[in-house]
Amino acid sequence: MQKLNKHNYKEYAIYPERILQFGEGNFLRAFVDWQVQVLNEKTDFNGSVVVVQPRRSEKIERLNQQDGLFTLFLQGMKDGKPVDEHMVIESISRGINLFTNYEQYKELAGKKELRFIISNTTEAGIVFDPEDQLEDQPPKNFPGKLTAFLYYRFQAFSGDDSHGCIIIPCELIENNGERLKEVVLQYANYWNLGDDFINWIHDANTFCSSLVDRIVPGFPLDSIDEKTAELGYKDELMVVGEQYHLWVIEGPGWIKDELPVKGTGLNTLIVDDLTPYRVRKVRILNGAHTAMTPVSYLYGLDTVEESVNHQELGLFIKELVENEIVPTLDGPPEELAAFSNEVLNRFMNPYIKHYLLSISLNSISKFSTRNLPTLLDYVKQSGTLPKWLVFSLSCLLHFYRGKRGDEDIPLQDNPEILQFFQTLWEKVDQHELHMEGLVKTVLADKQLWRMDLTSIPNLVSAVTTNLLTIEQIGVKEALKELCRTSIK
Ligand SMILES: NC(=O)c1ccc[n+]([C@@H]2O[C@H](COP(=O)([O-])OP(=O)(O)OC[C@H]3O[C@@H](n4cnc5c(N)ncnc54)[C@H](O)[C@@H]3O)[C@@H](O)[C@H]2O)c1
Ligand SMILES: O=P(O)(O)OC[C@@H](O)[C@@H](O)[C@H](O)[C@H](O)CO
Question: For the Mannitol dehydrogenase N-terminal domain, which residue ranges apply (predicted)?
Answer without folding.
Answer: 17-259
